[in-house]
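User: Run a structure prediction on this.
Assistant: Running it now.
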Amino acid sequence: MERTKLHESIINNSQMTFARSGGNGGQNVNKVNTKVHLILPIGALDGLSDVEIERLRKKLSANINKEDCLFLDVDDERYQERNREIALSRLEAKIVQALVIPKKRIKTKPTLASKERKLKLKKIRSEIKKNRGKIW
């Protein structure tokens, strides 16, 4: 994955629509379309291999519609331009995060000291429970 090529691809292929948003802005909220709805066709992304695109589809399936487009809504700020910037950066971050391959966990065995501690605690617990019996 080439990050600059991906960034350019997102900017060139994304489509934005705007709507009135709730939240901050006072009476301005009812008049100005500041909410950004960003749509990006996954097939149009450059700089990704077929394997990476499949990983993207799997990880971001909640944000992909029937037309195989990735979507994102942003209405954090009062200004449309700022919401555009946030939407583009969030989308890129989501894509990059989805493409990260997690490291496999290497199983380790318990140490001798931890085994001994466990046995000691079990013995103490056993004694406590044994001493709960009736006194004759």
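The mean pLDDT is 87.
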